[in-house]
Each structure stands twice: as C-alpha cells, then as structure tokens.
C-alpha cells in the first residue's frame, strides 16, 4: 500500500503542504523500492532517509511553535519524538535480525498509519493556529 495525497490532508499552509506532498512521494518510492528489493541496503537506506527528512520537516514545523507560542507545542513535539523513536526501534530490529520482509511490512504499515493520523490530528491544528495568527497566507 502507498500513501495517497488527497484534499482531506491539506492544511492550507503552503510550506507544510508542499513538504507533506514531497514526503508522500519519497515514502512511496521507498516502499516501491523495498517491494522490489527488500535487501538490507535498501531497508537501511529507507531508514536513513526517513530520519533525515523527518528531522527537516519536524524542524520546520517546530519553528512555528516557538515563533507563535503554539499552545499544543508539547503534544505535537511528543508526536514527532514518538515517530523518530519508532523508526529507531525498527532500525535496531533490522540490525539485530536483518531486514526481513516483516520489518519492511511493519515500516510500511507504520508510515501509512502515522502520517495520515498525524496530519489530520496535529498538523491541521497547527495550521488553524497559524491562520488565526495571520502569519502565512492560505494556499
């Protein structure tokens, strides 16, 4: 299964939506690569990408937390930390047991579930707050 971009997950904040779209495209490519070649190298490349890109994306969201004194900052940051921890946990399992197909499936399922829920529950709240503060134009 792949991440599907649709209007339900638009936040209306261009920077955030553009990052989400790019992330979805890249994650879908990683999933495709893992389906074609579930090698350890491919698995760990996917993990490395996720950690790097998530850091960049989360950092860009978190700059708004500080600039705007976002009231849900701690909850949202906790979500980010849990994502990073889960990716680290899956990586550790891969180092111990190898990147067996079940880990690729676990990674895929987690990504599909987490991103949709995170965007709908947390990023949309952030977007509403940003719009209320009139900091950015709506897309």
What can you tell me about this protein's structure?
- The structure is a single chain.
- 20% of the residues are buried.
- The protein has helices spanning 14-36, 40-68, 73-97, 101-132.
- The longest helix is centred in the C-terminal third of the chain and has 32 residues, at 101-132.
- The protein has 139 residues and is mostly helical.
- It contains 4 helices and no strands.
- The chain is elongated and about 50 Å long.
Distance between the termini: 28 Å
Shape descriptor reads: elongated
The biggest sheet, with number of strands, parallel, antiparallel or mixed sense and barrel status, is: none
Number of helices, counting only DSSP H or I runs of 4 residues or more:
4
Low-confidence stretches: none
Number of E-type strands: 0
Question: What percentage of amino acids are in beta strands?
Answer: under 5%
State mean pLDDT (0 to 100 scale): 88
Multimer state: single chain
| Sheet/helix structural class | mainly alpha
| Order of SSEs | HHHH
Radius of gyration: 16 Å
Could you estimate the helical fraction of the residues in percent?
Answer: over 70%
């Amino acid at each position: 299964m792949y991440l599907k971009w649709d209007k339900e997950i638009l936040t209306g904040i261009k920077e955030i939506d553009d990052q989400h779209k790019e992330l979805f495209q890249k994650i879908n490519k990683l999933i495709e690569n893992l389906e074609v070649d579930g090698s350890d190298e491919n698995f760990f490349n996917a993990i490395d990408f996720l950690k790097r890109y998530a850091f960049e994306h989360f950092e860009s969201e978190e700059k708004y937390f500080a600039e705007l004194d976002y009231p849900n900052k701690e909850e949202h940051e906790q979500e980010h930390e849990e994502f990073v921890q889960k990716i680290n946990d899956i990586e550790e399992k891969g180092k111990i047991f190898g990147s067996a197909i079940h880990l690729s499936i676990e990674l895929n399922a987690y990504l599909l579930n987490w991103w949709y829920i995170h965007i709908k529950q947390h990023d949309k709240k952030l977007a509403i707050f940003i719009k209320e503060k009139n900091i950015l134009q709506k897309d």
